[in-house]
Design brief:
Layout (H helix, E strand, L loop, with lengths): L1 H14 L4 H14 L2 H14 L4 H4 L2 H10 L1
Helix pairs in contact: 1-2, 3-5
């Protein structure tokens, strides 16, 4: 079940990536919902996904900050 939530999160983030505010909002929600090891996976996925999207790349800090506190 948890894996399904991780996959769903990636799908949602891909769909809202056209809007920085929506992306940040969905990212914040997903960090709260996912398990700690999934947040780490999400961070690695975000690095790859935002590599050529400089405006979204800033959102890595959101996950990085939460990842450290886990």
């Amino acid at each position: 079940m948890a894996r399904a939530m991780f996959e769903y999160t990636k799908t949602v983030l891909e769909k809202v990536s056209f809007n920085l505010e929506l992306f940040k909002k969905e990212l914040e929600k997903s960090v709260k919902r996912l398990l700690p090891y999934e947040v780490k996976e999400l961070y690695f996925w975000l690095q790859e996904f935002t590599q050529n999207k400089p405006d979204l790349n800033k959102c890595l800090l959101l996950v990085e900050t939460n990842k450290r506190s886990l």
